[in-house]
Write a structure and sequence with these properties.
This protein has a 4-stranded antiparallel sheet with strand order 2-3-1-4. The protein contains 9 helices and 4 strands; from the N terminus they run E-H-H-E-H-H-E-H-H-E-H-H-H. It is of the alpha+beta class. The chain has one domain: 2-Layer Sandwich (Alpha-Beta Plaits). The chain binds inosine-5'-diphosphate (IDP) and magnesium ion (MG). The site of inosine-5'-diphosphate has 9 residues, from loops. The site of inosine-5'-diphosphate (IDP) has 9 residues, from loops.
């Protein structure tokens, strides 16, 4: 099954939403394959947000992402990359639809509480960036037969 990467940003940690946000993924029927707290470094942020390096607001994003540790998660499910992006909502929290994580927990572009991988390709790169192989677990959810039909369960 597909895996994707999430980061609960310092805005989620400081505002006490770690549990609320992780619950969204559990409630949906996604499997948590890995979860940990870590302090981001200059180097990892330069790599992770390479597409924004030239932006004038990049130093602000970097400071924001280093303000506290983050929670990194690897989330698995059928079409997990797209499903998690949908649950996350659009970048600007003020425009994000109610019911999405950003729509429910954010009023900001920068302080938008969560990162989620935007493609299958970037999910693979980002999972490898934030997790070692031994930090990911392949246990089976006991509820699996009640989350997917048998034909869906066979898909990857
Ligand atoms: P995404 O997180 O929805 O994928 P990206 O464009 O990849 O959005 O930007 C990464 C992060 O950089 C955003 O989540 C947001 O925190 C921050 N960011 C993006 N654009 C701006 C901006 O115009 N001002 C301030 N922060 C921004
Ligand atoms: Mg992005």
């Amino acid at each position: 099954m597909e895996k994707t990467l999430i980061l609960l940003k310092p805005s989620a940690i400081q505002r006490g939403h770690i549990g609320h946000i992780i619950s969204r993924f559990e409630n949906k029927g996604l499997r948590i394959a890995g979860l940990k707290m870590m302090q981001l470094t200059d180097e990892i942020i330069d790599e992770h947000y390479a597409h924004l390096l030239d932006k004038p607001f990049f130093p602000r994003i970097k400071a924001s992402m280093m303000a506290t540790p983050v929670i990194a998660g690897c989330i698995e499910g059928l079409d997990a990359v797209a499903v998690v992006r949908t649950l996350t909502g659009v970048t600007n929290g003020r425009n994000a639809a109610p019911g999405t994580i950003r729509g429910d927990f954010s009023m900001s572009v920068q302080e938008n509480v969560i990162h989620a991988s935007d493609s299958i390709e970037s999910a693979k790169t980002e999972i490898n960036r934030f997790f070692k192989a031994e930090e990911l677990f392949e246990y089976k959810l006991a509820s699996f037969p009640f989350i997917y039909s048998t034909d869906e369960a066979k898909q990857d």
